[in-house]
Amino acid sequence: MGLRLRGLRKDAGFTGRALADAIGWHFTRISKIENAVQAPSDLDIRVWCAACGAEDQVTDLIAQARTIQSMYMEFRHRTRSGMKQLMLSAQPLYEQTTRFRIYEHNAIPGILQTPDYVRAMLEFWFRFLDIQNDIDDAVSARMARATVLYQSSKTFAIVLEEAALYTRFGGTDTMTSQLDRLLTAASLPNVSLGIVPRTVDREVIGTAGFWIFDDKLVKLETPTASIEVSQPQEIALYVRMFETLRKPAVYGHGARDLIVNALDAM
């Protein structure tokens, strides 16, 4: 953020002191913002851009500033009282979103998971993060969140790597039920389920799963944090990546055949 604002200042021909004089700030405030000692407010960004003749940059810069403030949210902090609240915190976003684009490379995405699959996945994270175990409530909250799948006003474009069909959580019975669930979900009229075969030639493979909510937000997770991206330029890159990742996927009967093959392998 500091580097981008400094670039705007220099492009406009201002020294730090000259820009401070132009907008009525103390000159040290310019230095603090450019060197990341002080975060700019939305108003600071608007004033800065206006003085530099860069009003067209305001929206993107404000989005970047908000992303910097909120993109990295520690799980440990958000799960102090268990996983339930973490699951419920996303419910408003799910309700507000009309277009979901989801890519997962090694597991079934949450919105398609069965209760047993959810339980098998979460058991490890309670131990790993050393947090209060509220697994029954957390599973219920996750399943409640997934009910948006049945709202006809919403669409879901989901791309899975074939490997995700074989990543085992909870044993054979759990996996069999989960794959049956995939077959059912794929038949919904508002769901487009693509699966990328393991043997297909391709340009790239995703290094992490990610979700795109309309064109407003991207979310992805690391072992210890949830990252939220709201900067328009960054979201556009994720959209491009999603379109690239989905090119080699098969749909309809092709996707169904891959799921049935995974079921047979169980």
From TrEMBL:
<dbReference type="InterPro" id="IPR001387">
    <property type="entry name" value="Cro/C1-type_HTH"/>
</dbReference>
<dbReference type="Pfam" id="PF13560">
    <property type="entry name" value="HTH_31"/>
</dbReference>
<dbReference type="InterPro" id="IPR010982">
    <property type="entry name" value="Lambda_DNA-bd_dom_sf"/>
</dbReference>
<dbReference type="Pfam" id="PF19054">
    <property type="entry name" value="DUF5753"/>
</dbReference>
<protein>
    <submittedName>
        <fullName>Helix-turn-helix transcriptional regulator</fullName>
    </submittedName>
</protein>
<feature type="domain" description="HTH cro/C1-type">
    <location>
        <begin position="5"/>
        <end position="61"/>
    </location>
</feature>
<dbReference type="InterPro" id="IPR043917">
    <property type="entry name" value="DUF5753"/>
</dbReference>
